[in-house]
Specification:
The complex is a heterodimer of chains A (120) and B (321).
Chain A lengths: L1 H14 L7 H14 L6 H5 L5 H9 L13 H8 L15 H10 L1 H7 L5
Helix pairs in contact in A: 2-4, 2-5
Chain B lengths: L1 H13 L4 E20 L4 E9 L2 E29 L3 H20 L9 E5 L5 E2 L2 H29 L1 E24 L3 E5 L9 E2 L4 E5 H6 L4 E4 L2 E2 L1 E2 L1 H16 L6 H10 L1 H14 L8 H15 L19
Parallel strand pairs in B: 2-12
Antiparallel strand pairs in B: 1-3, 2-3, 3-6, 3-9, 4-5, 7-8, 7-10, 10-11
Classes of the chains: A mainly alpha (120), B alpha+beta (321).
Chain lengths: 120, 321
């Protein structure tokens, strides 16, 4: 009981968050994190990108438009697959590791296909 | 809501251990007084009186009177209560309350724009600075205010109380026989060698024993109607002296035998002289002729005058009564 009394402010603080981010922002965040690890072995090959990784992926997926919304894969699926990419943190400076990106590509082939510009 | 907060405060404060130290300081003496009580247990005593050739044993019963000397004084009982950590709770709670209050009251100073650089795993932007500040403020207030209140209550509960009361102490105790009354009954002369003498009845609280009887009797204690009789040391010594003198003074004085003893056993004769000299303390005891004959025998036998000055009478052989 005493521990709960101490922990509830912490729970409140961690639950504190802002408004829901639009699909376009979520998509751009995934693109940004994947492209930060494009130099990792296999990442660029599986995503079929060159040195212009970010621009290529935005163009393929349409995330560059503010009106973008997820259909297939769904927003929830993308958020689930994004979890390994934010293991180091959600702030922009926290770059995922090569292992995190590899896990993303292995665990989520449908989302990977989406970023390759193909229909999953 | 208020009831919940009050209950939480009462519980948190009520469970705090309270250190209590109690000490007693003795004050000045108010008065001293004597308290006399009788134990109500009458005991038989005996007094001895000698009028040669008779020993009178006068029997008495007496109560035991107890005299207690008491001193009455004041006593201060000082109780000191303290709660360890109360001051720390007030100071730390005060800091938390101040910071939390500043964050809550000054929340408009912070931006209300969400942190769009960060998207959490559920797809939400990071919380605005204002919301973070408000949350921290509320949390710090919820921790700080109870700590301050609890600390203040604990400080209030601490302190020192002084209780003055009267105290009584017995400083001296004396028990003496009191209210003696003559006692009649059957006296048994017990504790000797061989068959005990026949029990004898007292007359007017007195039993008279002659020197001839004492010489033939063997006893070490007295019983009155079956109860042990107490004898003072002085009376016991007098009774033993009477018994010794009854033997020494019974035989006629024989100067020739004393002269022989002075030559063969001078030390034994000197010891006998001391015993005879003790007989002079008994009123009416005819110890003079024997004492002179022993002195004469000793001066002739050893050529040395016996002690010019009489030494104190030797202690009589003790008898456990």
């Amino acid at each position: 009981m005493r521990h709960l009394f101490i922990l509830w402010p912490l729970a409140w603080l961690t639950a504190c968050s802002g408004p829901e981010a639009p699909d376009a922002a979520v998509c751009r965040d995934v693109v940004n994190r994947l492209c930060e690890t494009s130099a990792c072995p296999g990442v660029a090959e599986q995503l079929a990108v060159d040195t212009r990784c970010e621009a290529t992926l935005l163009e393929r997926t349409g995330c560059g438009s503010e009106d973008f919304t997820f259909s297939v894969p769904t927003r929830e699926r993308v958020l689930d697959c994004r979890v390994p990419l934010i293991r180091e943190g959600t702030t922009p400076g926290r770059t995922p590791t090569c292992g995190d990106s590899a896990r993303f590509l292995v665990d989520c082939p449908d989302v990977t296909t989406f970023f390759r510009g193909e229909v999953p | 809501m208020k009831r919940w907060v009050a209950s939480a405060l009462v519980l948190s404060v009520g469970c705090t251990p309270l250190d209590m130290e109690r000490r007693t300081e003795r004050g000045p003496v108010l008065r001293t007084y004597l308290q006399e009580t009788q134990l109500g247990e009458r005991m038989p005593f005996a007094r001895t009186e000698v009028r040669w050739p008779q020993l009178s044993l006068r029997f008495l019963t007496a109560d035991i009177c107890r005299t207690e000397q008491h001193a009455e004084y004041t006593e201060d009982i000082i109780t000191t209560r303290s709660v360890p950590g109360a001051a720390g709770a007030v100071s730390s709670g005060g800091v938390l309350t101040a910071v939390g209050g500043f964050l809550v009251l000054g929340r408009t100073l912070f931006s209300n724009t969400p942190d769009k650089d960060s998207i959490d795993r559920s797809g939400h932007y990071g919380a605005p600075s204002r919301e973070v500040a408000t949350t921290w403020g509320v949390v710090l207030l919820s921790l700080g205010v109870p700590a301050v209140v609890a600390g203040i209550i604990q400080l209030h509960r601490g302190g020192e109380t002084k209780e003055t009361r009267k105290a009584d102490e017995m400083v001296a105790l004396r028990e003496v026989p009191c209210q003696p009354q003559p006692a009649d009954g059957v006296v048994e002369l017990a504790g000797g060698n061989g068959p005990p003498p026949e029990p004898r009845a007292t007359l007017n609280g007195t039993l008279v024993l002659s020197a001839d009887e004492m010489r033939t009797m063997s006893f070490s204690g007295l019983l009155l109607d079956g109860a042990p009789v107490l004898l003072h040391d002085e009376d016991r010594s007098r009774m033993e002296t009477f018994r010794t003198c009854a033997s020494l003074l019974a035989a006629p004085v024989d100067p020739e035998a004393l002269a022989r003893e002075a030559k063969t056993h001078p030390n034994r004769l000197r010891t006998k002289r001391e015993l005879v000299r003790a007989c002079t303390t008994l009123p009416g005891a005819p110890a003079g002729p024997l004492l002179e004959a022993i002195d004469s025998a000793l001066s002739l036998g050893t050529g040395v005058e016996p002690e010019a000055k009489p030494s104190p009478p030797p202690p009589m052989p003790g008898t456990d009564l």
